[in-house]
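ok trying again, last paste got cut off:
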Amino acid sequence: MSSSTEDKTHFSTPSQPPLTFFSLFQELRDHCYSLALTIPTPIIAWSGASAGNEAEYRSYFLKDDLQNAKEYKATTSSVRALLPNLLRCNSKVAYEAASIFYGRNRFLFLGDWTWETVLSWWEKIGQVDRGFITLLELRIRRPLRAYERPDRERIDDPMSLEPASSRSPYLSRSSDSTADGYIETLNPAIEEFFKLLDDPLPSTRKLSITISLHTYSLPELRLLMGEIYRWDYYNTIDLPNLMEKLREKTYNVEVLWKGFVNRDRFLAEKANLERL
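nice, full thing came through this time. structure:
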């Protein structure tokens, strides 16, 4: 008795690569990052009050800012805690996560910040990550001032957070002027900050810088009788003029000024300025 064997052919299916997070389409990955890393309230980039003899006064003066900062930090704590973990995963996750975190959140400066504070923060983020930022808000509470003598020497204001700076080359003054009085002193770090905005960008994003003014304080809005108490909040047009000149030299940057004032009074002041 003989036995026969049947040849059996075994077919094997080609092995499939394992499914990973990167198997998802980019849009789905971005949605996951967005759920984890974005939040409606702003991310506090900096907040605080100055030290020194006037610290108690400044803390009272900035109490609303400091309270807002405390609330915002509590709201965004989970997001700020998660980001470092994602940045340590690998280079691809780090790049994609950073693009969403920096590109879809609003970053806010509160309290006694200076332009050197803003410049330092911008430098530390790094060229690639800061290229993702689209929304930056700077809340101005009190203009920095100095006393300018007829010979153009500037004397520090004892309440100022910074030493008096020389006049920016972008802001002219008549060569025969002998006027003296208090003027706004604009930190040269503003110009350094705008130079960094010209760094090569990893994307074609548009950066929107919002300057938030104290309530009822708009640049060059004249004080009426009985409003001398608002002197601490009064702004000249120097800073808007300087920022506009610097903005014109940068790529894809807009500067917005935000404040509150009676509409009729604002329109009247606007008409007066436009006639100049």
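cool. The chain is about 35% helix and 15% strand. The two ends are 119 Å apart (CA to CA).
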